[in-house]
Amino acid sequence: MIEIHNARKVYRQGDDEVVACQVGELTIVDREQVALIGRSGSGKSTLLNMIAGIVRPSSGSVRVAGRELSEMSESERDRFRGEHIGMVFQTFNLLQPFNAVENVLLGATFGRKAPGTRERALELLTTVGLGDRLHHRPGQLSVGQMQRVAICRALINQPALILADEPLGNQDPETGREVLDLLLRLAREEGRTVVMVTHDPASAALMERTVDLMDLQSEVAS
Amino acid sequence: MNLFAISLRNLRVRLVSTALTALSVSLGAALVAALWSLADQADERYARSIRGYKAIVGPAEGSKLDLTLNVVLNLGDSPGVVPLRVLSELERLERSNSRFKHYAFPQVRGDSVQGFPVIGTTDLWFTKFSLEKLDTDTGTRPPLEFASGGPWSFGNDQLFPFAESMAEVYNHELLHDAAGEEGHSHNHDHEHQSYGDLVPIDWRKAVLGAEAAAVMGIGVGESITPVHGTEDSDLAHEHPEAQCEVIGVLKKTGSAIDRSIYVPAPVMLALSGHRDGSFDQEKLEPAAEDLLLSAIVLRTFDHRGADFFQRHFRSSKDAQVAWPQGEIVKLLEAIGDAKEVLHVIAWLVVLVSSLGVLVALYNTMNERRREIAIMRSLGARRSQIFSIIVVEAVALSLVGATLGVLLCHLGLSVAGGWIEDRAGIPVDGSAFLREELYLVLGLGLLGGLAGVLPAVKASRTEVQEHLTPTT
Questions:
Q1: How high is the ipTM of this complex?
Q2: CB within 8 Å: B379 and A79
Q3: What is the model's pTM?
Q4: Given CB 3.0 to 4.6 Å as the disulfide criterion, which of B49, B80, B361, B430 pairs with B255?
Q5: Shortest Cα distance from B381 to chain A (angstroms)?
Q6: Comparing C-alpha atoms, which of B68, B7, B126 is closest to residue B387?
């Protein structure tokens, strides 16, 4: 479960304060699939990074799986992210020196150490239709194939939560739809919570719930 | 996948940069390893060369170091002469006290063949001189071994009778010369005996050191002709009357013996035209005991013997005793500073090459920020990013250092002959030192230290800032 209460992220620019993100109240229950929408610059990605523990909120509370992230050290948040959260990015963020299997295994390198990780990586890649692309590097894969590898990497640790930041951004609508269907299906089958940032209403419609960040901002307690 | 595998993959993906950086480390390592190897092999050679020389009896005047260098390493000219009576005195001392049992090997020097010194001595040299350590089982030291042929025969016991014959001829010639100057006409019906007549054909034999034989391309059955002095000097002249047949070639010893030619002492003593150098010129009518040698090598049975002889000859007008080990140590101390300078330069090269690791890695950090941010987003902690970069630096240095040590030994194997020709140090490219292992490990450690700065920079990468690709 994700519970956010009056969370704000503020950056300083000289004497000025820039509010990158503010959220009044938001609760996402386990296994829920939620789309975060909002206009550009509304702080969707920052909110996702706060939930991931990449960014510490300047004030307020962000609780994930019962842990208060704002009270954790950076190292603890890194460890927590590695073990409990899988991330999918708009630009896939695969590492060029590594092939598909290795990119998926990287997700496990910094996360939860479990036996049979390699077998699970092979199984995931086969499931997403990349059984014949296991040893291809990112440069040798299509855009859709790269995002599938990224989805496998997000799932390798069997995380409770998957955070996806505009996962369809670089793909044509048909491929994007296929990839999103795949992500949601796998997450549903494995019982994962999914929070996806998107600006595409059609994609948001595939999720169980849509949350507009503008609505959350108005709820922030003064 | 583990952190080590990630580090190695990162190095592989930047193959050219990795190879060039490793090469710079390897050159530094090769330089240090080569210096160590050459110094070690030179020290070993000196130690081995000295081992058989417990003491050297040489001229009363002059430098003990010069004497040692000349007799042990064939360097420089003989610093003077020692009368034969010193050899007699050594034998007398031994007879009077068995504690000072020893072997005495007389040497007569001054000539050479193609730059290799010709040493007149006795056959005791082939039976009792040894460069080897004491065999504790047999209580003996193995003598010099022959690769082909065998020794000639001329013993210490034959030296004195020969000296008597020489003295007789010498005095006869002096008398003849004096009579000639005073205008007396001595009617000699027969030619008086010359020095050359004193040396029968059986003594005109030579044994070559391994390197001398190899370089000159001369083997058993061929002959050599000594040249007085060194061949490149204006005063050099051949002694065809001293031509000797080669009857033996010694096995390689790794010492100056390899570059020596041994003939019976009379061959060198009886060279024509060298009459004035044969006997003590201060004697009006010199006797056999006044015959002049270059030096006498002593093999005593322990240091007490060497000490005794050193003390005994301290006030002698005829001779002094040098202790080669002490003299060589003095020499090595004198050149030690130069050796230190070389080592400092080598270490500076190593340091610079390690700085190269730092620079090479540091320069890649900007282009790797996104890659690092991605790993951080996957849960990599700053300490893990730090470790990945440091392991890269260590691996780079270890590979470079290992390559350098191998390169050094390959180079020494290839250039061993050339180095031996130039420096006189036999080089074995396959002889690895324990220190080289420490060098590799030390360079790995130094590389790790060089990796700290890039690693700190990498670990400070802000994830959110660098996750999105820059275009």
A1: 0.90
A2: yes
A3: 0.71
A4: B49
A5: 6
A6: B7
